[in-house]
Inverse folding.
């Protein structure tokens, strides 16, 4: 909580706390306008036998309840262990059903009432004005039979009208909203999402699932958000004005077990992601994920998945139910948190994280996760998740350390993007493994993986070897605590950096077994590689302890956004197994806690038994088995600038919504003053005035203009729409590269107002400004200035006329920048010429039928005009995608202006099969000679590879003599051993020639650890081992190998074998051999028969997967396959050559990657690199 007066509320108000409980009625809340209180001592409901008070004795077994006061309601007030500031009260309590209840106040009878059928009673004492003082209440109940029972101890409270006033926190029944399904047993409310705008109207929408609807087909319901929301109740089926539904294809599919929303194709409209774990599309009960594209428009009919406006992701693991949360225990049966979207590689397009906790790939229920790359295209093919890999469309995340027990780890049970935890400008992700026994049996663990621009497009991420630069592991030692069952994120402590929220629902403590706990781990620019939550301190985070045994607090959690407009994100925590003993005796009514964010860095522990108004609110279900809080989510669905929360009750078949509001009367509408204000807009197009100071501003929906007179603001959030930040002061420097990521959000325009102001930015800071757009428009005049990071490689891309203003367009690594031409700024690269290169995969070209993703393509440039127009060294070239904007990573292998020969490798995101319409563009020749820095990025281009050796670089001064450089980010340079290698012209530029024992050795690096994983080896080679000579056999030559004590693998060249008659002589083509202590195998790429004169030359690709086996491709075609199952040693050098005798071997374009290459990728690679290639054309 944050206000202009109290800045560390949890410490300030510890002596003025009160407990507020809300019983959610069938219409979403109780009537009246009051706040409720109870003391810790009064929460427990004792069902033991009543005491004998002088009436008829209570016989054992009679259903007599000891009467008691449970809580007091006041019209307003503050409460701390029974302290109130309002003299008008209502008393609420519990007794035997239908009993007459008499209250005595300070030995004076205060009145009588009758308990209802459930034993609840209420006595309205508001007509009587209390005098200040301390009061003691005793309660007596009398049954119709005459039996009498007396409360065991008095309820004591103090009335003090001089307590500091605190406004009411909640006004039940005014803005609450309940969504109901009439279908019994559908589990409506099982999973929720609320942070996406699926129809592009500027208002976030609620998404609710009912997996058991229609005999288990499942149904997902989208409820449109809208301005000035007045609905208090909505029952299915929906009208098109209220939303739409998606139904599962088959009974048992269970559509909607998990949900996510976000813009997965960069069209500006959020998309809907749903799991169907019972789907048989890939294998029996293997499961599937459906991606439904968002569509602009105020209405939308029901969606038929047989005509899916999107694509399907299917698993091939039979009975492992992709997209279903695992039932670790009866109480932890799933929470729908296995899907999430975020931009992991900062390319401006959200990526999809899929948890698969029941996967058996690394052990029974070991679990894993997949990261699927988002694409700026609505035309995306279905994707199969198989042992053969993802075909360049994503990668797998797993934990496979040698010797560790992975059974029942359930890695991926929690799978969430968590914002930018390390403040580097890129989204990070977290995976929960609640069954992991890292610290104790089923203690659980959480793995954070930091987003980055260098992660390979297909490289497997191994969690067991993560460094501090790559991520973090979070642990807690309590057995069966199930840490990581649910995950979330929020900017909870006001430092501008996202915080990680982790649940431990099985944790036991002072309140009993399985009370549960939730941990908030504060984000920071530097984090250790591991964190023990049991040793956490205030500066590191906050622990939140469950209120009662059996609550399983943290079964579901979610960042709640900013509910109360104080600039701090809040949390919503589910405790769906809560018994309701605080209010009733019913079991499993469920509960949820809204915990308000706090700037108090010293607050390291929050006990929900001491929960106060300044800490937040708590909610209870109504009936046994409602399971309120089974799912929780948040979003600003009415666009008023206050976040709203939703809580699912799948047992009751409903979702309850609580709308954010000005809880503490400390929020100003639209206009602030010079103090530190909390300012909130409306759902329309607002002009918001911050008049200086540490203001927290939330603009809400609409195209808003937010004025600030300095850069001291606490937080600014423009909300949905195209929002403008205006600098109204003079000589202000706004450096968004130095702002923590959460301080300035959802801003699409910055207006410097021609006041001598300046703006400093870079690619990542622009990309992080808006969740709706990767572009920033900058207005200003001649007195204003903008400056960009020179390492970002912004390129001028012409001018754009918008609303009568001319803007200079700049393209960055992934963001777009439009700057008013009247402004001055730092010089950026500008090119004078361009050339398109087209890809032909039809039968007239490369003859590749399938789409290929993220493939390095060789561009052979032989146009002397292009080659000689650029600067020596080719610094002034760039490649962009067909949109003319997106920059593509590239590496120059050679640029020979003397001979007019240039070879450049470019990473192309997608080449469509059987198509000749795709292209990329070369931009070249800088406008001002020498003004453009070298833009090569081989680390991004070859990020999927363990090593890439072109052999053309040689001793160019950048490497020591005898070293052949590796272009991959691993820098696995090859070093000469024995006789020196030499160079000769080969397939792509130069190759390296081995004679006799000439050897290149690559020292071991973790990136070369191929133990237990799939890998591929590619190479072009020429050898003299194929020529027919005197009937003597010519042995195969080692091309690449790893040879250990107990295991080995090698790729060897083709060789001639003499037979009895010359006409039957044959050449055995290139081969792959592998072996371990249990045996070995050699797979030869086929044989050729006849007379052979001259050397053999061909491209060889070998693919090995321990689960699938060996595949050998020769010149792009699959020739032979073999068995797998061999276990390689982990730490081996890589060796090239090393063949004794009078043999010669030439290698060119050699690569090793820790993934399976698919057949279309291999075919396209061969067709691209062969000398008579027809894949790439410079004209159509």
């Amino acid at each position: 909580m944050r206000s202009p007066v109290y800045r560390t509320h949890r410490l300030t108000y510890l002596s003025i706390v009160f407990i507020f409980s809300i019983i959610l009625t069938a219409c979403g809340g109780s009537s009246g306008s009051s706040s409720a209180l109870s003391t810790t001592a009064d929460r427990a409901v004792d069902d033991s036998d009543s005491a004998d008070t002088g009436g008829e004795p209570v016989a054992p077994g009679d259903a007599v309840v000891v009467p008691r006061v449970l809580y007091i309601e006041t019209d307003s007030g503050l409460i701390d262990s029974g302290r109130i500031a309002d003299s008008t009260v209502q008393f609420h309590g519990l007794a035997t059903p239908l009993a007459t209840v008499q209250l005595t106040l300070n030995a004076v009878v205060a009145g009588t009432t009758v308990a209802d059928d459930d034993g609840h009673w209420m006595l309205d004492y508001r007509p009587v004005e209390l005098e200040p003082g301390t009061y003691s209440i005793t309660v007596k109940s009398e049954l119709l039979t005459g039996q009498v029972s007396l409360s065991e101890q008095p309820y004591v409270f103090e009335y003090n009208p001089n307590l500091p006033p605190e406004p009411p926190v909640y006004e039940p029944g005014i803005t609450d909203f309940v969504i109901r399904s009439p279908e019994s047993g559908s589990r409506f409310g099982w999973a929720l999402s609320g942070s996406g705008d699926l129809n592009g109207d500027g208002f976030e929408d609620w998404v609710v699932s009912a997996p058991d609807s229609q005999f288990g087909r499942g149904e997902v319901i989208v409820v449109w958000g809208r301005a000035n929301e007045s609905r208090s109740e909505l029952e299915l089926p929906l009208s098109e004005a209220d939303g739409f539904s998606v139904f599962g294809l088959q009974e048992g599919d269970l559509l909607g077990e998990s949900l996510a929303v976000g813009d997965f194709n960069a069209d500006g409209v959020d998309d809907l992601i749903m799991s169907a774990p019972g789907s048989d599309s890939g294998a029996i009960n293997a499961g599937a994920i459906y991606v439904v594209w968002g569509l602009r428009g105020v209405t939308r009919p029901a969606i038929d998945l047989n005509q899916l406006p999107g694509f399907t992701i299917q698993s091939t693991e039979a009975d492992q139910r992709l997209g279903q949360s695992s039932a670790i225990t009866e109480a932890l049966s799933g929470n729908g948190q296995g899907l999430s979207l975020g931009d992991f590689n900062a390319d401006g397009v959200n990526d999809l994280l899929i948890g698969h906790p029941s996967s058996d790939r690394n052990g029974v229920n070991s679990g894993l996760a997949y990261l699927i790359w988002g694409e700026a295209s609505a035309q995306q093919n279905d994707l199969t998740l198989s042992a053969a890999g993802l075909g360049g469309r994503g990668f797998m995340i797993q934990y496979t350390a040698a010797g560790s027990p992975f059974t029942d780890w359930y890695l991926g049970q929690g799978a969430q993007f968590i914002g930018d935890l390390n403040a580097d400008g890129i989204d990070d992700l977290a995976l929960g493994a609640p069954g992991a026994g890292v610290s104790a049996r089923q203690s659980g663990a959480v793995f954070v993986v930091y987003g980055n621009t260098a992660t390979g497009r297909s490289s497997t991420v191994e969690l067991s070897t993560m460094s501090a630069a790559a991520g973090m592991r979070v642990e807690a030692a309590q057995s069966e605590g199930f840490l990581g069952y649910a995950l979330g994120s929020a900017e909870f402590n006001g430092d501008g950096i996202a915080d990680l929220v982790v649940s431990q629902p099985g944790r036991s403590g002072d309140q009993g077994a399985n009370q549960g706990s939730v941990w908030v781990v504060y984000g920071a620019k530097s984090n250790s590689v591991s964190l023990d939550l049991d040793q956490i301190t205030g500066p590191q985070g906050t622990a939140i302890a469950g209120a009662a045994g059996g609550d399983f607090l943290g079964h579901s959690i979610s960042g709640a956004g900013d509910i109360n407009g104080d600039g701090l994100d809040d949390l919503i925590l589910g405790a769906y197994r809560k018994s309701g003993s605080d209010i009733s005796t019913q079991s499993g009514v469920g509960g949820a806690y809204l915990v308000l964010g706090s700037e108090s860095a010293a607050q390291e522990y929050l006990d929900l038994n001491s929960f106060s108004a300044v800490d937040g609110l708590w909610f209870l279900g109504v009936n046994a088995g409602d399971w309120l809080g089974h799912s929780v989510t948040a979003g600003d669905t009415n666009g008023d600038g206050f976040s709203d929360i939703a809580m699912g009750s799948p047992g009751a078949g409903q979702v309850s919504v609580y709308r954010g509001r000005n809880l503490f009367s400390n929020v100003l509408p639209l206009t602030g003053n010079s103090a530190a204000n909390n300012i909130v807009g409306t759902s329309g197009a607002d002009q918001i005035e911050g008049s200086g100071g540490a203001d927290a501003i939330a603009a809400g929906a609409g195209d808003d203009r937010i004025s600030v007179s300095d850069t001291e603001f606490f937080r600014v959030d423009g909300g949905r729409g195209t929002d403008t930040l205006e600098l109204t002061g003079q000589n202000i420097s706004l450096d968004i590269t130095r702002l923590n990521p959460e301080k300035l959000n959802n801003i699409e325009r910055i207006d410097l107002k021609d006041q001598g102001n300046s703006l400093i930015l870079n690619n990542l800071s622009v990309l992080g400004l808006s969740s709706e757009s990767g572009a920033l428009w900058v207005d200003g005049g001649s007195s204003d200035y903008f400056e960009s990071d020179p390492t970002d490689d912004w390129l001028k891309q012409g001018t754009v006329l918008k609303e009568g203003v001319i803007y200079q367009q700049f393209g960055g690594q992934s963001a777009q920048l439009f700057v008013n031409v009247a402004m001055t700024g730092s010089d950026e690269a500008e090119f004078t010429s361009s050339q398109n290169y087209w890809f032909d995969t039809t039968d007239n070209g490369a003859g590749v039928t399938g789409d290929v993703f993220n493939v390095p393509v060789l561009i052979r440039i032989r146009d002397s005009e292009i080659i000689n127009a650029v600067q020596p060294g080719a610094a002034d070239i760039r490649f962009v995608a067909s949109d003319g904007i997106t920059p593509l990573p590239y590496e120059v292998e050679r640029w020979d202006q003397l001979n007019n020969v240039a070879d450049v490798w470019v990473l192309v995101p997608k080449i469509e099969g059987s198509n000749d319409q795709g292209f990329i563009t070369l931009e070249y020749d800088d406008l001002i000679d020498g003004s453009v820095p070298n833009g090569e990025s081989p680390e991004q281009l070859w990020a999927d590879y363990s090593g890439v050796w072109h052999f053309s670089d040689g001793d160019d001064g950048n490497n020591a003599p005898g070293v052949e450089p590796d272009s991959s980010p691993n820098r696995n340079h090859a070093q000469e051993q024995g006789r020196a290698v030499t160079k000769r012209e080969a397939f792509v530029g130069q190759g390296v020639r081995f004679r006799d024992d000439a050897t290149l050795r690559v020292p071991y690096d973790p990136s070369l650890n191929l133990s237990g994983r799939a890998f591929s080896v590619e190479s072009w080679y020429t050898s003299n081992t194929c020529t027919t000579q005197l009937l003597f056999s010519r042995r195969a030559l080692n091309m690449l190998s790893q040879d250990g004590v107990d295991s080995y693998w090698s790729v060897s060249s083709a060789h001639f074998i003499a037979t009895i008659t010359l006409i039957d002589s044959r050449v055995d083509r290139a081969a792959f051999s592998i072996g371990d202590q249990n045996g070995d195998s050699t797979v030869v790429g086929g044989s050729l028969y006849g007379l052979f004169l001259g050397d053999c030359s061909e491209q060889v690709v070998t693919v090995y997967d321990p689960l699938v086996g060996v595949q050998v491709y020769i010149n792009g075609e699959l020739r032979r396959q073999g068995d797998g199952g061999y276990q390689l040693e982990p730490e081996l050098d890589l060796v090239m050559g090393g063949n004794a005798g009078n043999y010669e071997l030439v290698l060119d374009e050699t690569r090793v990657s820790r993934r399976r290459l698919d057949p279309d990728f291999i075919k396209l690679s061969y067709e691209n690199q062969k000398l008579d290639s027809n894949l790439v054309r410079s004209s159509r």
In short: The chain has a mean pLDDT of 85. Helices lie at 9-12, 213-216, 763-767, 864-869, 938-941, 1159-1169.
